[in-house]
């Protein structure tokens, strides 16, 4: 039995709130138990230099812990003048995950920046960021695109952390469980059931192929559940994902915003 | 008549939520109309080098706009590796304002850092930060101190922005009004009615002594109202401010947390 | 009685030397007692990006303490790779103050940078910088502009520090007085008698409306005296301020340079 | 058939040269085809602050591409004043991988820094770095430790990149293959056959569980081969790994250096 | 007699290996005793801003010590975010030395960056860098230029360190000798026998004109020997230096690459 | 004939003003023609880490161009967050030059920082800095030391720039001459007639041994003249240089300050 009475494969309560702030094209607060991340997606009409003239767009992410999102305060990266290695690693992961389900050609020469700012951190902030950022990204694209031609999001995308604790493989580790785990794995998956990213690390121990498979089984079930949640929350906008839409259908969904 | 139908001296709806996040010793979300700032106060058992051995503590503040708190995205300071001049100026102001109502000797050799992270910015973020940070500071000190001896907060402290718009002096400017104002003034005041800080700037115009006085009159009324709000929100903890408390009273307030 | 026998409202001896160095379009050494600041104004034929194509110019300032301008050496900001918060705050203040008396449209798409480098610091360096920078700015504009159309300086501008010491309000505080003051206020004013900036801070205490008024009275008298000094030093160039000049008059003043 | 006629599971020619430079406690040049990385291990008698007094040591890594190790020059990070996100991510991976096979308690309060400087880059530099760094680490520890008590290396450690190219899964991708791969995976394994790290990324496509398994099969065979190579190159020093050695055996290996 | 039995004027064994790495237009490993520097020359079709449109090219150099090239590890400049003063000084020297023998007009609007990365440091790294960089530069230019018109290298260029040790003037100081020398001098010379740069420093003592002359005599002999070595290594490419070549001759040398 | 009618070997008018500012232990304004440098020496009772406990002191220098000391404004290094390579090179030269005439053991565990801030730059700023810094250093040491034991300055020290212009070797080049010179050399010498530093550079040309000798002849005459000037300006303090002083003599010189 886990500290909060969850079963091995059970997610913490998840809550995704769209339109959490007013100005961003997409703005989502995702809560996974006590972990809370604000994900905002900004659309800009320009692309990095190396894409100019290619007709192709770009999606990137930035990540930050608010200084007192954690149990003891972490120093503010802006004050130190430098992002930590952990931050850099996480924001690169979020960007890669999102780009895997975006048709950058269909996006056109636009950049989307998804900011993931952690309000409260109780484990799993990077995977919560991906799951929440996906919803913010869909909203931002739906807001920006007129609703004709191909919708630039090709599939769902959600992420979960799994790990091997003292009693075996578990899903959605809180901070306390994460600190005690010998193996920690983050998995990003698509709605079609494929893997986008698998990052398993055994700093406090190593793991066998069997253990890897057990972790992947847990991750598949969890990401399926998270994507069902994303679909519910997105309502009719979810239907546009992976489709070429005629104007009429696009207009029908306007009421959803 | 103002764009949101307020009278010249009318504040936007204000809402102060204590204990907004779980881990910080003090955590407050302050909302002034659409402006929303998360203020967390962290207590640490050490002081800057120049105070070591003096028996005296320190209070400092950090401020940041979340990248998409604003109508168009501002670049993340941590990514650029540098805080802007505006950020530096604001966090110095917040720190000075708070220190004016803290008895640093009574605080002992402790540091309190108040982080003001702007979730949504519609004008007046620095003054909202001060008003919210004060409540977070009181909570953090109340949480940390045993409730005997002198309570290190000597008085209330709140701040407001006032300015001269096309139709004369107004209180609590939203972003749109702020952009159109010829004179902008931030005022920080104590519960005793004294001034802590007056910063009036006429970049788009200058102002007379009479106009300065009209602005100060508005600011006095507004900060009185804000401090009444702080008192309501703090409940029995508010009674400790400026007092030397015997144990009994301190214990009585335990139920408030 | 003050440490140097001045009366409460008395300025320290002031000396403004124009053309102190040779290469800058405007170059002024201002001495207020032992405080000495070199102010140079540079005119460049370009503007920051956000002004390109607007037909409008820009005025900005930079400020620095020479490492041993102070009683104990301050570390060189260039060596540390970062300007302090105090420096950033001061140079923003100087820039705002000067822009308040410049007609940026009449300036055209030109940038003027005023460098204020403190040679010796005995209190009041930011206000001395503004008072000296104004003279350097006038010289630089007079040197650059042909003398027809509207002279882009609309009015005089000078600044002073006032504060509340142990014996009440005083003018033009030296370092020793500044350290002992409970309230410190910097005031920037125009020749027409209006306020550009009022920055009053009570870090070591608070202040009442009455005390604020007493400080403003002192500041008005002091800045009037400083502007009379600026006028004397500028000679016939002073007559151009706030005027539209025909060629003849402009030529008459050539001899002054 | 691959561009260099290798079969799908075939490694490029591998060459590990110990004692490549003279001053480092461990110094290895590893060549995997055209990819060449110099790995040096430095032992220092101190630990990061958070380990002081714990009796425990630390192992960390730094990684860099020489500016012209690549087909077109990459700018020097020291000149830009900042390590790229890719560099940060790689050096954190190398450090984690090595720590998984080091008994930090047996190491005592010592720090080992392994520098991986890429002389020539033709794909797989991060995995070559790990495989080479392990040998340098063993040499540095063997050089430093007297040969009694527990040898602080608990097992072998090697890494390989595998990926899915146009014709299916392949091992040890060169730069050209890496650019064309839809899925890229880095696997770090121990001599005991366990996994330390699995990082699979599908930025240009996604991958199924079956494909993941095929990639892991390739990686297991390749890392087994690499570890056999490490064992050959290390000679009698290899026997110390994972053992508690009496003095006699330790002395016997002295001749190997 | 010197520690390695050399005579006062004797160079350490020198070995220059061309085409040491594959991708750079010029790539040379120079070994002077235990000092080993990898010099790569990169040609790019653009110039710094201040040369745009002048028809003239530029040659610049960057220098770095690999962290463990030295007896005790030096921290990585990229990790600290800053190049040391010593690095900056050295790379400016290398750039100046090379430009003295390049006809920047004949080079056209191209930039050549020579990277000098020290693999092992036993004194004389800056002079070895110059001597090796010259060969890499010649190879890069020979590779890039079609072989008609004026060859942009006008003369040979080599450098040596000389110094005054306990027993008088000596040539090509190793680290141990360098640490003990009272005067240290670096001399850069051309094939025509002229001086490009003389940098003599007496931090641990001063030196007379006579001593200066003795050092210059040693430096002349040593650089003549180094330039003979460069000529041998360059083979027929050496004949192009300082000449205007018809196509035929240029083609004849193609076999040398 | 030179642009300002000087003969080839003639110095520009030199003026050394001691006690130019009040707070520094040594403060000198040196003027060489239009070149003006403020040199202040600060004594602190601590040493860099690597000297702690050695009983030995340290002397270091910092150098900066005020932004508008030059004909066109150079950007402020503190604002850019980085010192240029030229600045770093110059301040290292000044430090080495001064240390050559300081007995660091006699100095004891003290640090002296000499700040050389260029007020106006018309060529020769680095050599003027050395010549002026020496006087500031002597004053700072005389002010700090009680006047018994060994005076820690062992000899005079002055520097000059010489170069080869269109009409042959010349002394003390102004900016215009410096830009036109094919060879530029900076020479630092002691009162005893020895060389401390010789830095000759032929970026726009090379130079022969004969030309080097002609330049050194000019430099010897010029530095002798500069040191005579230093001696005059220092008055009786000059007598302490290189001597072990009894208390009586030391006291006699007190009146000089």
UniProtKB/TrEMBL annotation, chains A, B, C, D, E, F:
Keyword tRNA processing appears in the UniProt entry: yes
Biological-process GO terms, alphabetical: rRNA 3'-end processing; rRNA catabolic process; tRNA processing
Catalytic activity: tRNA(n+1) + phosphate = tRNA(n) + a ribonucleoside 5'-diphosphate
Presence of keyword Iron: no
Domain called Exoribonuclease phosphorolytic: residue spans: 10-140, 156-221
The protein's Enzyme Commission number: 2.7.7.56
Record keywords: Nucleotidyltransferase, RNA-binding, rRNA processing, Transferase, tRNA processing, tRNA-binding
HAMAP family: RNase_PH
Similarity field: Belongs to the RNase PH family.
Function field: Phosphorolytic 3'-5' exoribonuclease that plays an important role in tRNA 3'-end maturation. Removes nucleotide residues following the 3'-CCA terminus of tRNAs; can also add nucleotides to the ends of RNA molecules by using nucleoside diphosphates as substrates, but this may not be physiologically important. Probably plays a role in initiation of 16S rRNA degradation (leading to ribosome degradation) during starvation.
Protein name, entry field: Ribonuclease PH
Native organism: Veillonella tobetsuensis
């Amino acid at each position: 039995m886990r500290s909060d009475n969850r079963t091995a494969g059970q997610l913490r309560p998840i809550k995704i709130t769209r339109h959490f702030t007013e100005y961003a094209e997409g703005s989502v607060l995702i809560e996974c138990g006590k972990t809370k991340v604000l994900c905002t997606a900004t659309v800009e009409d320009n692309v990095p230099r190396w894409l100019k003239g290619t007709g192709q767009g770009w999606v990137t992410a930035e990540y930050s812990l608010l200084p007192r999102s954690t149990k003891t305060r972490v120093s503010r990266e802006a004050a130190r003048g430098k992002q930590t290695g952990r931050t850099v690693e996480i924001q690169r992961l979020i960007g890669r995950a999102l780009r895997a389900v975006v048709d950058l050609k269909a996006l056109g020469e636009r950049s989307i920046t998804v900011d993931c700012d952690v309000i409260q951190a109780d484990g799993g902030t990077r995977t919560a960021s991906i799951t929440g950022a996906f919803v913010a990204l869909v909203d931002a694209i739906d807001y920006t695109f007129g609703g004709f031609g191909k919708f630039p999001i090709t599939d769902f995308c959600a992420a979960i952390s799994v790990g091997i604790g003292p009693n075996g493989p578990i899903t959605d580790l809180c901070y306390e469980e994460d600190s005690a785990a010998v193996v920690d794995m983050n998995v990003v998956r698509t709605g079609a059931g494929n893997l986008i990213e698998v990052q398993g690390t055994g700093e406090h121990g190593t793991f066998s192929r069997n253990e890897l498979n057990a972790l992947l089984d847990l991750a598949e079930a969890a990401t399926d559940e998270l994507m069902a949640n994303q679909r519910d929350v997105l309502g009719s906008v979810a239907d546009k994902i992976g489709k070429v839409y005629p104007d009429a259908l696009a207009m029908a969904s306007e009421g959803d915003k």
